[in-house]
Amino acid sequence: MNYKSELKNDHIKYIYRRNEIRENIRTKINRKYDPAYIMMQKLKKAVVTFAVFAIITMTFALSSSFVTNAKSNHTTPKKKYYTTVEIKNGDTLTSIAKKYYYKKEYKNLDEYMNEIMELNRLESTTIHSGCYLKIAYFK
């Protein structure tokens, strides 16, 4: 082949490709007015809208059920009251603490005993019959 024929073939390929691109652009422009294309676009929008709505609804439903479960499992907190107890013969600080101990308000019995000791300004767990102890209880 000679140089001129190669140029001519390249030019023909260029024109063919340019016409192909123009036809694609025309097709895209004309497609906007095609009823089938318009219907497909509306369908896509409807599916996406439904999916988003379904996700939001499910998220709301799940979160509200967690809140409902949390509320139903929660009991109303008991109020803290104070009273005095007379120490009888044979009573120990531990035995009195066990009698009034409320597990939901204290980590363990020792924490409750420490509170009784602080309320009564006791330095040890030794108590004497005939005396009175101020204690906290819940009702």
From TrEMBL:
Domain LysM: 83-135
Organism domain of life: Bacteria
Transmembrane region(s): 46-67
PROSITE patterns: LYSM
Alphabetized UniProt keyword annotations: Membrane, Transmembrane, Transmembrane helix
Entries under Gene3D superfamilies matching the protein: LysM domain
Pfam families membership: LysM
Protein's name in the database: LysM domain-containing protein
